[in-house]
Specification:
The complex is a heterodimer. Chain A is mostly beta strands. Helices cover 0% and strands 50% of the residues of chain A. In chain B, the strands form 2 sheets. In chain B, strands 2, 4, 5, 9, 10 and 11 form a 6-stranded mixed beta sheet that branches. In chain B, a hairpin with a 5-residue loop joins strand 4 and strand 5. The relative contact order of chain B is 0.34. Classes of the chains: A mainly beta, B mainly beta.
Chain lengths: 113, 112
Amino acid sequence: NAGVTQTPKFRILKIGQSMTLQCTQDMNHNYMYWYRQDPGMGLKLIYYSVGAGITDKGEVPNGYNVSRSTTEDFPLRLELAAPSQTSVYFCASSYSHRGHEQYFGPGTRLTVT
Amino acid sequence: KQEVTQIPAALSVPEGENLVLNCSFTDSAIYNLQWFRQDPGKGLTSLLLIQSSQREQTSGRLNASLDKSSGRSTLYIAASQPGDSATYLCAVREDSNYQLIWGAGTKLIIKP
């Protein structure tokens, strides 16, 4: 199993550009998550999904959109990138919301200038 | 609002020492607590998950304890090795919602 994969690993965007961060998991997990991690800070939840077709906002959803058309994929869309979105983005998945571990992808380092 | 704090932010110890990393949380109504390891340029790896009804969990040289009433967890690493160098994060899952609330981590350096 590849686990959770993310692309790209690095990206530099200009202010106002848009992009999609890709996330795929091959563990047949229903639950998937997007987090951002700013320097010296803990992770903050952006969006999560409890299954195909179902998504919900986390703690910091503004400026982002998600979709979940399949169990495997959970892309994160940035519209009109801003410098405040410079961060490292992690995708994660888990078998259940509460009692099971979350498995993380390697992250995408995004810089907006 | 739940807040998770990890002190110290960084720690450097000689190889072979036993050490303790600390995690504190402000609201004791948690469902479980997890310890993660983060290596530079890589994702997070789950080390130990402690359910709210448990007092501790062990995996190899790692032992995590949980004291809900005092809002504290510790991660004990025995006989530290240079390969243990990483950032260690703790996260709590609250009873009231599905979100993990994260500490900022402790950056651990084990000197050969």
